[in-house]
Amino acid sequence: MKGIFRTRPPMPRYNFTWNPQDVLKFLNKPPDKDLRSVSCKLVTLLVLATGQRIQTVALIRCPNIKFSTSGADIQIPDFVKTSGPKILQPKLSLPYFHECPNLCVASCLHQYLELTKPLRPADCDKLFLTFNKPHGPATKQTLSRWVKNTMAKAGIDTNMFKPSRHASTSCAPRQGVHIDAIRRSAGWSQDSQTFARFYNRPLVEKYNIR
Predict the structure, then answer these.
(1) Domain named Tyr recombinase: which ranges (predicted)?
(2) What is the mean pLDDT of the chain?
(3) Which of 46, 106, 206, 209 is most buried, most CB within 10 Å of its CB?
């Protein structure tokens, strides 16, 4: 086993990743009012803004969302991949983005909650609902498909690039975000080498739009 490890050490799956600015430019437009558009926009913005896995975003429950004058806070009490002894559960903080309202995650979240209020079954407290009746909780596979479709519409080659987690955490340090803030947002411990080894990838600036 040691010989195999030395000849084939674990390597990152991607050596470079896509630039999330391309998707943000696509989403930076007046908000749509139909369920499909708002759903896809919200889940994509959540993944990009928080650096969390789709699995974590799929676990968001309405009772755990709290709004304030500064934005929205979301607690994730459910078990996630990084859960463990002495490890805090994820908490997503989404301040209001007054400089660019079309990309404000907290505002989009509030819009989505109002839009789905009359559609939400009484026994469903998961944030994301499926498009078609009956509107049940959307699975992580469904949310992943929504993000992928949004990426494709923005001109990203989804045959080559898939995980938006890579892109959001690779873009953050280039915008001056401290490594500790990235680790906290993405759910890594302070001494984790995950970011340095796997997630900080060069960004591809141009794509062939299909």
Answers:
(1) 22-200
(2) 74
(3) 46
